[in-house]
Every structure is written in C-alpha cells, then in structure tokens.
Design a protein that fits this description.
Length: 264
C-alpha cells in the first residue's frame, strides 16, 4: 500500500503491523503503529490546517485555547473569532477535500473493518492543536458516555501526528487496560478528581506521521507544549454504521459512512 502518502512497506509488512497493533489495542486500550505517512503529505495537511484557522469557514467547529492553559477556562461556543493559529481544535474536517481524502486511506479502512466490521461510520474528524505558546492542558478523560448522545459506544479512534510530538510538546498519556473497566461516570468525558487522583499513565511520544489506535474508553490526557513549535494531530472517531443519535432537543445527527465495500 503506497497510495496517498503511505510509507512504502510491503503488503505483508502492513498486514503484520495492523494485526499486532489491533491485538495490542484490544488488550491495552491503545497501540502505536509507527510512522505510516510521508513528509510530503504531512506538510500538505499542516498547511491546509493553518489555512483553515487563518481564513475561518462556518462549516467547521472552532475552539480557541484557554488564555491561562486551563481546561476549565476554555472558551465555549464562540467558534471562529478571527485569524490565528491558537485554536485548540477544529472539527468536521471530513468536509475539507484534502482531509477527506486522507481519512479514506486504505490503512484506516483495513483497521476499521477489522475492529468494527464491514459497515463503518464517522462520528467526528478533529484536529487537536497545542500551539507554540503552550496550548491547553487536557485532564484525564474518556471519549464516550451519555454526553455523546449515541445509542451505542464508539470504540475506535485513529490518531495521527502531523508534527513530532515529544514528551515536552504535551504528548499523549494513557493508562493501560482502563478501557476494560467501562465508563468512570455515566456522563463520560472528564474523569472526576476523586476517581483519577494519583493515577499516572504511560507517556506516548510520537514522530510526525505516526499512527496510534485508541479505544474510546481508555483514560488519556495531555499536557502543555513547551517546545516553542506547534503540535498538531488529527483524530478520527469511527463506529458501527448502525449507530444512531439519541438527542431530543435538536434534529438527530446523521453520520457519514466510510470505507464502503463494493457490492458484488
């Protein structure tokens, strides 16, 4: 598989990497697949991400970093507030042609079909950024619960580093096997302090182009960025295409299908 910026490994090597990674993801709640994408593609994705942040577009969801770096003081509901590269996250990147083509790459399709099955849908495609001035500290949390408004729990996130993400940049930190315990609270999201107090995880520094599989219920967090360089990563959350939105106050969401297998 060499299409769309994938590193030029043999088919058998890709199969072995996927198999080992999926086994580790199932056992520990997360797994690195190593560097899978080349620098030319990563540079194009970084440039496009910066362009979106500078230009703004009402199709996307934007959230700026907290001025003091604290998750509790993140600005809520303000969206795009003008040109800048200090947006903590941008959602709905599947609407951008370049990111959409990247999401549909054959490596992700192979993993999704193995973990989820033949019918796969996208819950969200998000760029998480820790700007060169520090970003925002993200506390221990799980990506699921009643807050997500789904009739079943999504289980797979594929995280791709667009920049090098050393420990000093606020790399991923995860607690092995926490996905086996289910949700810490019914609501999901941030784990209460009295539950997470004293917990230390496993730091997972990454190189640009590295891919990490994460179970939605695995406890994870990330710190501040002290490198003076931006740290950007794209996360896609995948789930069964049979998943339905359960929200009542607004029109239920529909979810884009991915990696469809041709009939016949």
């Amino acid at each position: 598989m060499t299409a769309f910026g994938l590193e030029k490994d043999s088919e058998s090597a890709v199969e072995d990497t996927c198999a080992r990674g999926i086994d580790q993801y199932r056992a520990r709640g997360f797994a690195s697949l190593g560097v899978q994408f080349d620098e030319a593609l990563l540079a194009a994705l970084r440039a496009r991400a910066d362009q979106i942040m500078l230009e703004g577009d009402p199709r996307y969801f934007f959230q700026r970093d907290a001025p003091d770096g604290r998750y509790e003081t993140l600005p809520r509901g303000s969206g795009w507030t003008g040109p800048g590269l200090d947006y903590r996250k941008m959602e709905k990147l599947q609407l951008d042609p370049l990111f959409a083509a990247f999401i549909e790459n054959p490596l992700f399709a192979r993993i999704a079909h193995e973990v989820i099955g033949p019918a796969v849908a996208l819950y969200r495609a998000v760029l998480f950024t820790k700007g060169k001035d520090g970003g925002t500290h993200l506390p221990w949390h799980q990506d699921g619960g009643s807050f997500w408004g789904l009739d079943r729990a999504p289980v797979l996130q594929i995280w791709t580093a667009l920049d090098d993400a050393p420990v000093e940049s606020g790399c991923l930190e995860l607690v092995p096997e926490t996905h086996l315990r289910g949700l810490a609270t019914r609501l999901g999201g941030v784990i209460p302090d009295d539950v997470s107090c004293g917990i230390r995880g496993e730091l997972l520094p990454a190189r640009a182009g590295e891919v990490v599989l994460i179970h939605n219920h695995a406890w994870h967090r990330s710190g501040m960025n002290s490198t003076g360089r931006p740290r950007r990563a794209l996360t896609i959350c995948l789930m069964s295409a049979e998943t339905r939105c359960t929200r009542k106050k607004r029109t239920p969401r529909t979810f884009q299908r991915l990696y469809e297998i041709p009939r016949g």
